[in-house]
Specification:
With about 200 residues, the chain is mainly β. It has one domain: Fumarylacetoacetate hydrolase, domain 2. It has 4 helices and 15 strands.
Amino acid sequence: MSPTKIVCIGLNYREHIEEIGAKLPERPQFFLKPPSSLIGHGDAIIFPRGAERVDYEGELAVVIKDKMKDTPEHETLNHVLGYSCFNDVTERAIVMKNIADLILAKGFDTFSAFGPYLVTDLDPNNLEIKTYLNGRLMQHDNTKNSVFSVQQILNYLSRCMTLYPGDVVSTGTPKGIGPMKSGDVVEVEIEGIGRLRNTVRH
């Protein structure tokens, strides 16, 4: 099942919002990544030609089970197929030069790492999430510290657009984003799901 789109939420962890000096959003902030950016567990993250700084962003991903449009908040989880780990890879230098180029900075091939498993029967709003770079812990938070719950996110998105089976919704990254270099190993680990592992190369 291939996604028609990958929807990513920005500014959803309080410490990350403080880290970058932003304000708490009043509604979920989102952007789209092309399905062509999607890779799996064990695949390589490839630096784009001319890239200056490529960052990891560990996140919880939600996969949609069936069509969602204007779905009430209390019904949203009934439309979830499962949860997985996600690395919302970003060419940070592009974003820092012009925030309007956010989709460009995040949409390169291999910039959406997903896996290793799709897990059901979890409480998505109370999961430990960690990101490791070459074995060193770089990000650590709990999804309970998100500004918007998974239910709130899915309700809001389904009012903005139709979500289809296989679509991926990634729910934002905690504090501690940082750059990677060729040869690095980046891992995103989420409680109850497993650990997504990818190498980085030019």
